[in-house]
Amino acid sequence: MVQTSNLGYPRIGDYREWKKTLESFWANEINEVQFLKQMKDIRLYHLQKQKEKQVDIIPVGDFTFYDHVLDTAVMFGLVPDRFQYQGNAVSLSTYFAIARGNQEAQASEMTKWFNTNYHYIVPEWSGQIPTLTENKPLKAYLEAKEEVGIEGKPVLLGPFTFLKCSKGYEQNQFEDLSKALLSPYKQLLLELQEAGVKWVQIDEPSLVTSISDDEMKLVARIYRELTQELPNLSIMLQTYFEAVTHYEAVIGLPVQGIGLDFVAGYEENMQNVEKFGFPKDKVLGVGIIDGRNIWKENLLSVQVKLEKLSAMVPSERQWLQPSCSLQHVPVSVKYEDSLHPLLKQALAFGDEKLEELQEIKQFMTAAVSDKETIMQTNQDIFTQLASSEWRTPVDDKPEDIRTKRSLPFQERRVAQEEKWQLPFLPTTTIGSFPQTTDIRRIRRKWRNGELGDMEYEQVIKQKIKEWIDIQEEIGLDVLVHGEFERTDMVEFFGEKLEGFAFTKNGWVQSYGSRCVKPPLIYGNVNFIQPMTVKETVYAQSLTEKPVKGMITGPVTILNWSFVRNDVPRHEVAYQIAKALIQEVQELEKLGIEMIQVDEPALREGLPLKVEKWQEYLTWAVRAFRLATSDVLDTTQIHTHMCYSEFRDIIDAIKALDADVISIETSRSHGELIYDFEQNIYDKGIGLGVYDIHSPRVPSEEEMRKVIQRALSVLPNDLFWVNPDCGLKTRREEETILALKNMVQAAKQVRKAQTVSN
């Protein structure tokens, strides 16, 4: 009999209890004992829910206090030297300091988890010898067994992927470090075996990337060594997000199960199973439910896939499961009582996806007549969606809009310099200012109808004026209005465009306690009316300095939304871009001619296989240019990217043809500056000089050194000074002090540069 399995459950809780517990602990509103008790309650509740959903094989150890990659690093004692770790189990204070920084030490770098919008803390190697300080998966297994009566499946990040996601070593050290990891990994697995664990899930998503033949041989050596003394422990080697690259080698690894993604990696994985078969002594983890999107599965498509697979792999050797951890989707649709009934019945969040697994399992064994009824009910949903006015085929083409500026950058630059008259090293911010409790409360009251439109707009105007005055006092050169009217940089625009829907409780984790509520793109996207003009024009009326218009770019809106899956993604991106250029032109008409079109998610949309990059980058660049090209030569287009590995996409970044681009560099300790030493970039560039994701306020001297380092490799007349991201999550006092230090650092470098010249 086929079994159902889950790979990971959303951490945040039905009502973001996890987030609230974290933030209460950080604010010293609860102590460590209370924190641990509340987290345990949340964890056990999640396990109990999965048990009630009749999931046969339930993951344990997928829960975390911040990030699962950070958990793995501290479990093996891989703590950066600056945190003065003394060995043994890592304390909560050190754990959170690594993630968030403190006044003594900078936080570890944070970057995207493969091609998702989840951020993980990057492990740092600096000569440490990894040792098992605490067997977290074992503790999770015993807790689930004793407290909930679950024979759980411990989840562990695999050694190859863990090392690939780390930093601080040269490539020629990779094999030696993998050997160093073997000892603590073996100890961990041996302890699981001794405790009676039957199955352990070892996640190796790096096996779906473009790894080399030599790297795959190293993976084989790692797992031969790792499994030598585990006769009574079964390993499910789990991959996700794409098809595995070296299929024949992967299925030959000495493990008892292989988990494959039959959603994102369906075609290639299926072709490989058909061509090369699947071992008769292994279980196949069939990733049949989309763990990354929120649409109900088309049962007809599922049936076709499973019938193909069952002809090659008997159902008793299959585990039906999501394509990846469900941490990437909201918890449950049941709280969404304001969605259109047709749309709501087409959705499946985390809990519903587990129910779908059970339904698919039942469908496979149901009588023919029952199957027909189940299938008809399912297909009716997709028929109604396809025939709805939401999804009427679009006839117009993106070629109708200009995708090239009328002048090349060097000529535009002359006109823009004459217009703007900015000083050397102009200072600015990325866009948002602190979203205080008061402003969130006011916005919530307005949304709930407890506050009238005029009163609400007056509050927003007061906040804009307050922060225009603060920016003037600090001495910033290019100002922003602060985005106080915006809950989220994607949700805000989606609410004002046709084709988007919104949830009440559809939260997912982005990083740490930061949760986002992605819009649902369910139909054709169209511009309705101006979205940002009122607030931006008002801000500009308060100052003689330029105020940037702030718009989220088409690729980021796409990548940070749950997107309809009945048309290609690039078609949706083009629809969004065609709507955004109308907003850009509305701003331009009213004198806002410095406009930032943010694309922080451009890189995260890259396919995981290098050979597929060009196709994606071609349409992503085209979408950006559709949204930004049909403007005046003097209109200065800015963009912003978060945590991008610049070298990977430098040609695409150049092709965007933005006048100024800002890219994070603070947490990566200037590594992006090194990239500029290897690559020529001839447009305006702002390398974020301090990390906004940490409460730590860097000194003027610290930021001055970052600026000077950048000026050693960048054209001096093209360099901008800014934080590395928006400031909405920071406290007001932190923000003001940090910006004062930043502006003073820029002035000191200006002064020194003037003297030297």
Q: How would you describe what is shown here?
A:
An eight-stranded parallel sheet has the order 1-10-9-8-7-6-5-2. A six-stranded parallel sheet has the order 15-17-18-19-20-21. A three-stranded mixed sheet has the order 11-14-16. Helices cover 43% and strands 12% of the residues. α16 (437-447) packs antiparallel against α17 and α21 (569-589) runs parallel beside α22. The longest helix has 25 residues, at 732-756. It is an alpha/beta fold and 757 residues long. α10 (266-276) links the parallel β8 and β9. The chain is globular.
What would you say about this model in short?
The chain is α/β, with parallel strands linked by helices.
Write the layout of secondary structure elements.
Elements: E1 3-4, H1 17-26, H2 32-52, E2 59-60, H3 68-75, H4 92-100, E3 110-112, E4 119-121, H5 136-148, E5 153-157, H6 159-164, H7 174-194, E6 199-203, H8 213-226, E7 234-238, H9 247-251, E8 257-261, H10 266-276, E9 283-289, H11 299-310, E10 318-322, H12 341-345, H13 350-365, H14 368-387, H15 409-420, H16 437-447, H17 453-474, H18 491-494, E11 497-501, E12 508-511, E13 514-516, E14 520-527, H19 533-541, E15 549-552, H20 554-559, E16 562-563, H21 569-589, E17 594-598, H22 613-628, E18 636-641, H23 650-656, E19 660-663, H24 671-678, E20 684-687, H25 700-711, E21 719-720, H26 732-756
Parallel strand pairs: 1-10, 2-5, 5-6, 6-7, 7-8, 8-9, 9-10, 14-16, 15-17, 17-18, 18-19, 19-20, 20-21
Antiparallel strand pairs: 3-4, 11-14, 12-13
